[in-house]
Amino acid sequence: MAKILVIDDEASILNLMGKSCRMQGHQVSEVLTGRDGILALDADTPDLMIVDLKLGDMNGLDVIRYGNEHHPSVQVIMVTGNATIESAVEAMRLGAFDYLTKPFELADLQKTVELALLARRGKGLPGEEGFESLAIAQPALSMIGVSPKIREIQRIIEKIADSECPVLLEGEFGSGKQMVARSLHNASRRAAAPFKVLQCSALPEELLEAELFGNPGSKAETLFARAAGGTVLLEEIQVLPMRLQSKLESYLEEIAARRSLGDLPAKMDIRFVASSAKPLQEAVNAGTFREDLYYKISVIPIKVPPLRSRPEDIALLAEHFLKRHAERTGSAVPEIDKYAKRLLESYNWPGNVGELQNALERACAFAEGGRIRPIDLPPKVAQKVEITDEDEKTTHHLPIGVGLSDFVRKQEKLFIRETLKYNGGSREKTASMLGVSIATLYRKMGLKLEKDKMMSN
Question: Is there a single domain that holds both residue 372 and residue 424?
Fold first, then answer.
């Protein structure tokens, strides 16, 4: 549960947003004016602030600016009925995670709130910057892991750290691509310069273009200019619109040409890294990604493995997340008992590192006595227990949390189905082998109607 402050001068919309956040299980405070919002910020710093751009007594950007200066840990979502490129970009630069344009669906608000709170966990720490990315924050100096795949990536980073060649990171959502990019930046001569991240799917095309290449008549600096001397990571580059792909290809070509001539302006001196959750070559083959841009950004490709392929890293990552939680909350680092640890290491983690962090956040909330037990883990993680039968030398997965009758019924059906296969589909032989009647076999397989039909013929 998070603490959320909602500021909007329209009472009906304020009430609706507050109700939506409460439906997600959060503690919500609602205020109608910017002044009251600032007072609420000072009185009880929330985890997230949702603020309207046009308030009755002041500009919502001023509230965001105050929050950024005095409460930098607060995540921000801006809401507006008349969004402009300039106001949206300014809100982002002031630290806002995202913005929503009225009217919006409650589902969109709830999703944005969820993502903002995920990103907020690393805000102000190495690993997160404003609205930039939802990847999990990692230590500033090195990646976490001892698996062969992670060690290989570490070796690659050591070799290419000070190269100017563009890098393409490919891997599933949440696998740690931003962690790799940040490690590359921290290992390079650019470590003291900015590391800027932009998630291409987070912004509409017009705003994305303004962030990357500027807006005519605007004096606002582009993302590349703000990252001068450092590293730029474009996440989910596979969704970059074709028109912007062309502009990006031209921009990177200009950087390469001017660098080779020794005529590179300081504002263009960046290391370019891109990431994609899907193989970019497939997008090229499908005609949705420019081939010339693909070859330009994939000079050094790195495949980031999913968490399920490196179970030996799970314990280290878990320890890291628990320490971070303890530092943030001022509590002692909880211990993971051996049964819970076994569950963590045997789970498939379809959500990768991000899902692991969320699972541990939940476990910390439920844990008692400074120890995390299986019951403290999310049901989808804890309901499958892997045991080894020493006599048969086989491994079984037991769905802990399922009713005994349901489990027995499913096992019966599975056993009968496999026996049927063994007997070539002969129900008579199967019933004889199992020591049951044909009627019992049909009943247990849910084939009573078929049997009745056969008897009536």
Answer: no
pTM listed for this prediction: 0.60
Q: What is the DSSP string of 112-133?
A: HHHHHHHHHTTBTSTTB-TTS-
Phi and psi, residue 31, nearest 5°: -135, 155
Q: Which of residues 387, 419, 437 is at a domain's end?
A: 387
Based on the fold, state whether residues 94 and 64 are members of the same structural domain. yes
Of residues 280, 137, 269, 272, the one with CA closest to residue 198? 272
pLDDT in tens, 36-69: 999 999 998 899 999 998 888 888 889 998 988 8
Pairing of strands 271-276, 300-303: unpaired
Give the whole-angstrom CA distance, residue 308 versus residue 217.
Answer: 49
Distance of CA 332 to the CA centre of its chain: 26
Report in angstroms the alpha-carbon separations of 347 from 312, 341, 355, 368, 386. Answer: 12, 10, 11, 23, 10
H-type helices in 241-378, by residue range?
242-260, 280-285, 291-297, 314-329, 338-346, 352-366
- Which CATH number is 75's domain given? 3.40.50.2300
Q: 86 and 65, same structural domain?
A: yes
Residue 395 lies in a domain: no
Q: Are residues 261 and 335 in the same domain?
A: no
